[in-house]
Amino acid sequence: MLDSGGEMRQQSFVIETKNGRRKRLKVRRLKYTCQTKVEVEITGGHKEYGSSELKRKVKDVGVPVKVLSVSFSSTENDIVLSSSSGSGSDERRKTSGGESLETLGRGTYGVVSVQGRRKVMEDAVRAEVGFPVNGSRGKFDFFGVYDGHGGADVARACRDRMHEVVAEAVELERIKNNKKDPVDWDWERVMEVCFGKMDEEVSGIAAARTVGATAVVAVVTEDQVVVGNCGDCRAVLSRGGVALALSSDHKPDRVDELKRIEAAGGKIINWNGNRVLGVLATSRSIGDKYMRPYVISKPEVTVTKRTEEDEFLILASDGLWDVISNEVACKVVNKCLDGRIRRISIHGEDHHHDHVRSHSTSEAAAVLADLAMARGSKDNISVIVVALSKTS
Which residue in 35, 92, 240, 246 has a CA-CA distance of 20 to 30 Å to 309? Predict the structure, then answer.
């Protein structure tokens, strides 16, 4: 039999055990999936590798890898990075709340997807660089961010198929109009066909009746940036230091969306925010068959001519945009790409006077995700940063 002191110690042990389990679960949720496209000079010439291949190659040849951990002060512009170089795993530093992030050289794009404070991961991302279209001039780069709700099935289906659907639609557009130059193509029609077909394909998924995903995709050609958006993911272009929104969020209370929904017989109900029929916080999505015709899959499309002042493109889910403005996001990425950041070594030495140029898009994407977490984002966070400067 335990005395009162023993009972108190036992209760204290149980409480500490529960708290420890909660902390482990919390850390487990804050995981990154990172991807970057870089060129690495290995014996035999240059070759492109994805992030997993790169880690294996770096290990094989013993190339030093820059390892970063990220933290933030109370001010939005004071970004502190801890960095080190080394090939040994014992020198790695963890990104706050996630796995270690490794970068080598400068990637054309960087991808970070974070589960964040959500119990499940419903975001999905895709990047396809340099896919050709027969008979057309040049190659295209494709980027997509998909934010699932009610489950991840539709977002994952979009991740696996949307880029292929776009490639097929682009090929048909070229053949139909016999035009080789993408500048002459009807991109609005192409994107509408793609989103419509993707919506039809996911209707075959049993869960798609009550599961959906918002989507923003970008096709980057030599002369244009084409963006198709359906929902509240967002695309932002940095041009000459100015943030330009290339998409407009489809929120139920947006004036034109509200009129469209009410004309179709639907209602907007304020239930923890404005929602279609009190359920969905977005007025457009892929899937969500039970919400038709109020919630539609038709995208809004913008075609932007590229200029010499274009610096980079950011695609992200609302887990980022709910807590970070377009302007702040562009400032943060600019600081990362230009090396205008305050660095602290693993030994705590302040090297903020050393303006070493990192030029890492993957690093910039990770910094944005961490900043969103630091500002209290409660959603999954997915970010793609694409370098557009023709001199990069």
Answer: 35
